[in-house]
Specification:
- The chain is mainly α and 471 residues long.
- It has one domain.
- It has 20 helices and two strands.
- The protein has a two-stranded antiparallel sheet with strand order 1-2.
- A hairpin with a 4-residue loop joins β1 and β2.
- α3 packs across α20 and α13 packs antiparallel against α14.
- NDH-1 is composed of 14 different subunits. Subunits NuoA, H, J, K, L, M, N constitute the membrane sector of the complex.
- This is NADH-quinone oxidoreductase subunit N.
- It is a multi-pass membrane protein.
- Belongs to the complex I subunit 2 family.
Length: 471
């Protein structure tokens, strides 16, 4: 048994435990920003280590836990999302009345859960990882105890998350009952094209569709995104969604190839519905977090379209898009954090005249939103090009057409934010002061979004290598 392939998870557990223990010995009245920097440094070290795991392709416990290029790529997405989120969460944590140190440890535990999910090669291991992620996010969503909206969001996430988990487990029980196994490879070899197993696959898909906020399983996202702390909203939009897509791809491409003709059509319909409903409902939103919540529903639709291709090109497009979506989201939510800290509001009116108060933040927000819209030469354009090209190659012209039209629709509501920032006068002339860590996170996302739009080669090569692991 080669435990060396577990080093990423082992070090992540140790980092989270060390943060908890260190928090216990720091006096209560002392700031906890040092713990945040320690978490960032630890996660950066783990991120660097993951590059050594490309090409390993090992497994443990009779194949229940695998480390392949696909899993490593997604682990890097989770680590980057957590690092950048922690950087722009310092001011929020400093304002918490208590439990400040645990905030950083919980983010690391959430990353650990997502790591287990993407390396799981059987449904029960996957479930354990998903529960670790979900329970941690439930705590983080309702972390600010004195905030009514936060408590409401946490309770909604708990109840709806429990319901989706029950649906998922019922699907797993059906699959296990008719195949006698929860290992993905065994399910693929034993699964006959029977209605019971098809129903199990549908229920499993429904459980994971909740995690990615795809239509019609998206109803939780606007309220929870609005009520959760901004850094946690960002992490839900980036890492949790990426984890959901990772397990959807692994489970359905490996365990259920016999039903491919059935589930590809259904996924295509859900992708189209997510793109249409997400973009159209985002238009009248005047709360920036709700606008980004519905935008994330549409983004799930674009990535589901890549899943319809069910080949290396489609998976590569999803992986590439998931990575650049992290950078675009970090840029957008870093600005949302800065504006909220300055004004105490998430309304679009709070962004009026932002270009005069902070030209840098206005530019970062504009680039992030236009990248999500798929405007060249930003990274989002390249990502959507990969996704739609894979879809067209498989003959789903109608789906690519819907994706193109809905991308143009998204430009409208993204430009509403830009219009407020550049074409309206600010309510006050006070300069918007931002912390250095938030500035670092925002600038990193800004540079990455521009760089991968102009020079996508390195990330594209990495995504292609990861995609091949599933085929």
């Amino acid at each position: 048994m080669n435990l060396a392939i577990l080093t990423t998870e082992i070090v992540t557990v140790c980092l989270a435990a060390f943060l908890v223990l260190l928090d216990l010995v720091i006096p209560e009245d002392e700031p906890r920003r040092g713990l945040g920097f320690l978490a960032v440094l630890g996660l950066l070290g783990i991120f660097g280590h993951t590059f050594t795991q490309y090409g390993v392709n090992g497994s443990l416990y009779n194949g229940l836990f695998v480390v392949d290029n696909f899993a490593v790529f997604f682990k890097q997405i989770f680590l980057l999302a957590a690092i950048l989120t922690i950087l722009f969460s310092f001011e929020y944590v400093d304002c918490l009345p208590c439990y400040r140190g645990e905030f950083y440890a919980l983010i690391v535990f959430a990353v650990l859960g997502m790591m287990v999910m993407v390396s799981a090669s059987d449904l029960l291991t996957l479930f354990v990882g998903m529960e670790l992620m979900t329970i941690t996010f439930f705590i983080l969503v309702g972390y600010h105890l004195g905030n009514g909206k936060g408590s409401e969001a946490g309770m909604k996430y708990l109840i709806l998350g429990a319901a989706s988990t029950a649906v998922l487990l019922y699907g797993v029980s059906l699959v296990y009952g008719f195949t006698g196994s929860v290992a993905l490879a065994d399910i693929a070899s034993r699964a006959a094209s029977t209605p019971a197993i098809l129903m199990g696959a549908i229920l499993i898909f429904a459980g994971f569709a909740f995690k990615i906020a795809a239509v019609p399983f998206h109803v939780w996202s606007p309220d929870i995104y609005e009520g959760a702390p901004v850094p946690i909203t960002a992490l839900l939009a980036m890492a949790s969604k990426a984890a959901g897509f990772a397990v959807l791809l692994r489970v359905f491409l490996i365990a259920f190839p016999a039903f491919q003709a059935s589930w590809l059509t259904a996924v295509g319909i859900l992708a189209a519905a997510s793109m249409i409903i997400g973009n159209l409902i985002a238009i009248p939103q005047r709360n920036i977090k709700r606008l980004l919540a519905y935008s994330s529903v549409a983004q799930a639709g674009y990535m589901l379209a890549g899943m319809v291709a069910a080949d290396t090109a489609g998976v590569k497009g999803i992986l590439f898009y998931a990575m650049l979506y992290v950078f675009a989201n970090v840029g957008a939510f870093a600005v949302v954090t800065a504006v909220y800290n300055h004004t105490g509001s998430d309304d679009l009116t709070a962004y009026e005249g932002l270009a005069q108060k902070s030209p840098l933040l206005a530019a970062i927000m504009t680039v992030a939103l236009l990248s999500m819209a798929g405007i060249p030469p930003l990274a989002g354009f390249v990502g959507k090009l990969y996704l739609f090209a894979a879809v067209v190659e498989k003959g789903y012209l109608w789906l690519a057409f819907i994706g193109f039209i809905m991308s143009m629709v998204s430009v409208y509501y993204y430009l509403l934010v830009t219009k407020a920032m550049y074409m309206k006068a600010p309510a006050d002339r006070a300069p918007l002061i931002i912390s250095e860590p938030l500035r670092w996170a925002a600038l990193a996302s800004f540079i990455a979004t521009l760089f991968f739009g102009v020079y996508p080669g390195p990330l594209s090569t990495l995504a292609a290598a990861a995609a091949k692991s599933l085929f």
